[in-house]
Amino acid sequence: MYKSILIPMDLEHEDMFPKAVALAQQLIGNENGFIHGVYVDETMIHHANFSISGDAVEQARQETKQQVKALFRKHVPEALQGKCRVRKGVVYDAVLEEAGKVKPDVILVAAGRPGLSSYLLGSNAEKILRHADCSVFVIRDDHSW
To answer: In the record, which residues are listed under signal peptide (predicted)?
Structure first.
């Protein structure tokens, strides 16, 4: 069984998080372990929000952080709660950096069905899978994203 599991969180697909937590609980089993969460804020990539004031950006970040923490506390049993962090940057880089800090036994990452763009650009799940220092389980859902 696993002792430490990292789950990247996506607020656009919140419905995947409880599924990932349920799988994490199965993987931990009756052992003592921790489920860690990480959400990556991509708002400053390519300076996408250059026309928004600094105060509005900071307020939005704080609201996002509160939403992520609430989602984590809602679905992860208290006894299994590890770290839950909000990081800035590119998703796969930030997830891999977080994995370097918490040293999980496994990363559970959700992935949608591949489309043409993922063949050309690659997905975050694929990059995490290729570069992680631990096992990575990819969770699929029935509906396309």
So the answer is: none
